[in-house]
Amino acid sequence: MEYMQAPASSSQGNILCCTCGVPIAPNPANMCVACLRTQVDISEGIPKQVTVHFCKQCERYLQPPATWVQCALESRELLALCLKKLKSSMSKVRLIDAGFLWTEPHSKRIKMKLTIQKEVMNGAILQQVFVVEFVIQSQMCDDCHRVEAKDFWKAVVQVRQKTVHKKTFYYLEQLILKHKLHQNALNIKEIHEGIDFYYGSKQHAQKMVDFLQCTVPCRSKASQRLISHDIHSNTYNYKSTFSMEIVPVCKDNVVCLSPRLAQSLGNMGQVCVCIRVTSTIHLIDPRTLQIAEVDGNTYWRNPFNGLFNPSQLEEFIVMDTDIIRDQKLGAGAGMRSNKHTLAEVWVQKTSEMNTSQQYHCRTFLGHLLNIGDLVLGFDFANSNINDEYLNKMNPHHVPDVVLIKKSYDRSRRVKRRNWKLQEMARDREGMDTDDERQYQDFLEDLEEDEALRKNVNIFRGEQLMTAAQTYSRSSITREISEPLFRFLLSGYGSFTVNGCLRCVKDPGGERH
């Protein structure tokens, strides 16, 4: 505690304190600091211990009356929150300085040193420094309380896709994680043919619906159910339900378009292969390399379904291949793919190697296939397909075999995969036994398709140097860049980790 006064001139003398008689410099109170301290306490009325409420789940502080804010220890935001607690009691003093005193992080105490000024006796300005202790008490916020309850929800988004494979759901899960739309969900429940997202407000559910409509081809329906009604205030309490149906077409599906839709897409063939599903359905004609995109509105006006399930893929071996160099398209044809090569191939089933039965077909995989390679495809010649548009097609225009993708050694690819994906925490019900198989198929699609991979956050684990590490989808560390991802797929090379040049080697000594 000290006086705040103008500096005395050299000719000014001292006076005696009116209480204790000690010589002091003249001041309006004519009292020394010790005597004035016994007479006046300018911090009177300011609490020296204050309670601050803190939520352990979301690590936020309560800012009265009902706002929860995120504040780090010894931050400006926490300093402002603590000063607001003292604002009403400091109306008669002037705040000069405020700062934190160090305390143990686990002590549940926050100490703040305040410097204040106030005018006392006969206009003397007194300055005082004191410490206020803030006691942290745990209190669960409303949002976390609803999350813990898991039953208190006001809106649900039901996402469904009537298909066997879940590739679209795996892709959608990564998009939701990338944009952090799962953080507002009270609960996520995975059921047969889809996922349910529960929200505490209709606005959060509507945000998820808008996101789904922009990322995957789908259609939506909304409904609400009255829970309660207050006749005095005329307020209603509803529970809203949003039903989202994703188109039942996944990557690597063979589809048969209606003649009208095929004509509107540039006179492409009716039998097409789905090479990718993003915000639109990407189709390619295996006979001409013609590509087209079908959005959700176009699909629901002219719907089509997959002709085969992924479990019906058969393995073929390439007996002969011939690249088609000059392919002329008819009038009104659309765009052709520059990433694929058209070829005519002779293939034979690996299950019929003891026979002379071979199949001739055109494929868009000419840039990948060589004689002796294994390839997966669908056998039209020996299948009984019940499809409205396929049954009306000219039999000469229906291919015997449609090749989908080249076959690789799955065990070796899993062994060399040093990257992982994040996964949403959700309740699982009615899970199929081949979910892990489908997830591995989705990871292989990411390795092979750069356009699909650019929308997904890919992470690497702590044991990146060990090529034969045990695969685990739970440990997530840091995101890897596209050049590093290409290195991991290339099988050789080096890169830097923490400034040191490293190489990835397998137990056999080969560089990977």
What's the arrangement of secondary structure elements?
Elements: E1 2-4, E2 15-16, E3 23-24, H1 33-39, E4 49-55, E5 60-63, E6 67-69, H2 76-86, E7 94-101, E8 109-120, E9 124-138, H3 142-149, E10 155-160, H4 167-179, E11 185-191, E12 194-199, H5 202-215, E13 218-230, E14 235-246, E15 254-256, H6 259-264, E16 271-277, E17 281-284, E18 291-294, H7 296-301, E19 314-323, E20 343-349, E21 359-363, E22 374-379, H8 388-391, E23 401-406, H9 410-415, E24 419-420, E25 427-428, H10 435-448, H11 450-453, E26 459-460, E27 478-479, H12 482-490, E28 494-497, E29 500-503
Parallel strand pairs: 4-9, 10-14, 11-25
Antiparallel strand pairs: 1-9, 2-3, 4-5, 5-6, 7-8, 8-9, 10-12, 11-12, 13-14, 15-16, 16-17, 17-18, 19-20, 19-22, 20-21, 22-23, 24-26, 26-27, 28-29
Structure description:
24% of the residues are buried. The chain is elongated, with a radius of gyration of 36 Å. Strands 1, 4, 5, 6, 7, 8 and 9 form a seven-stranded mixed β-sheet that branches. The longest helix is centred in the middle third of the chain and has 14 residues, at 202-215. The chain has four domains: 2-138, Roll (Nuclear Transport Factor 2, Chain: A); 150-246; 254-406, no CATH class; 410-503, no CATH class. Strand 17 and strand 18 form a beta hairpin. It is an alpha+beta fold.
Quick overview of this protein structure:
With 512 residues, this protein is α+β, with helices and mostly antiparallel strands. The chain contains twelve helices and 29 strands.
